[in-house]
């Protein structure tokens, strides 16, 4: 479980802490570390609004411009033919598309976007791909600025998170305001 806690709903910064269960209780294994979140803070997600979705979400596909750092998550090394489709009218909205070109009005190239995607993992906040609920929300490397809705941390910390994540443990991320550790019901 990763917990991202912002001091207020409109704060573009937060703290990230990774926890794992040890003898039935949660123990911190990474952090707390500084995290950049959406320019508008955290809350209800919407396309074209730079807000990080609040809630608890599974972590999915990992990827990066760099080679696999040793994660157990499904991982692909991004090239200039890897895109995340964010076009609400596209049949591949909120999915990874591997193609030389993509027929989309709003697709992000996962390689050309630069070092923020040296290491990343999908925050699967919109698995039903509902247009309008935002697309392409990741935990990725920080460039020191607020994000477009993602959560971003220091490059070395991001590598550590990827090396720690284990799909067999059903990893999730909880994002919110003034959170005090992982949800008790997990």
From TrEMBL:
Assigned keywords, A-Z: Cell shape, Cell wall biogenesis/degradation, Peptidoglycan synthesis
Origin: domain of life: Bacteria
Region of interest called Disordered, as start-end residue ranges on this chain: 44-71
Pathway assigned to this chain's UniProt record: Cell wall biogenesis; peptidoglycan biosynthesis
InterPro entries hit by this protein: LD_TPept_cat_dom
Transmembrane segments: none
Pfam families: YkuD
L,D-TPase catalytic domain sequence ranges: 5-176
Keyword Translocase: no
Active site positions: 140, 150
PANTHER family: BLR0621 PROTEIN
Descriptive protein name: L,D-transpeptidase family protein
Species of origin: Mycolicibacterium rufum
Lineage: Bacteria, Bacillati, Actinomycetota, Actinomycetes, Mycobacteriales
